[in-house]
Amino acid sequence: MTKSIKLNIGDIAPEFSCQDKDGKIVTLKDFINKKPIVLYFYGKDGTPVCTKEACEFRDRYEKFVDAGVDVIGISCDDSDSHSKFSQKYKLPFTLLSDKDGKIAKSYGVKGLLLPGRTTFIIDTDGKILMTYSALLSATSHIEESLKVIESLKLKQQQQKLQSKYL
After folding, report:
1. What is the pLDDT of residue 148?
2. Which residue among the candidates 18, 50, 55, 76 is catalytic per the annotation?
3. Is position 50 annotated as part of the catalytic site?
4. Phi, then psi, of 69 in degrees rounded to 5
C-alpha cells in the first residue's frame, strides 16, 4: 500500500512507473535524467478546469522549453483517454496515467471528488524545487512554475558567470 505524505521543497521526489498516452511504460528517472520537469497532477481529461489548465500549459509550453524544462501532466485517466485528450487539444507535452491513484498518493496530492491539482518542479537530481496546490485555479500553477523556473535560470546564469571569472 502506498503511503500518502506531504512533500516539501528539498525532498526527493518519489520514483514511479506508469503508462504514458501511448501505452509505453515510463519512470520518473526517464524524464529527470534529461532535464528538470514540471510535474502537474490534475483531476480528469476533458473537464472544464483541467482542460483550461492543459491548454494554458500548451500555450506557454515554449517558455518552459526555452528554460530547459519539460512539462508532464498526470491524472487517473487511462492511456486511451490521454491520447484522445492530447490529440483534441494539440498538447505538446507528455500525459501519464495514474489509474489507481498510487502516484498521486505518494506525492501527497489530495482532492475532493477527483484527485487534487498540485504542481511540482523537480530538478535533475530528483529534488523538489517547488510545490503548488490550488484545486480550483487552472492557470496559477503555470504562472508560479514560470516564476520559479525563471529565477532558477537566472541563478544558473549567475553561477556560470562567477565560475568563468574565478
Report:
1. 79
2. 50
3. yes
4. -120, 145
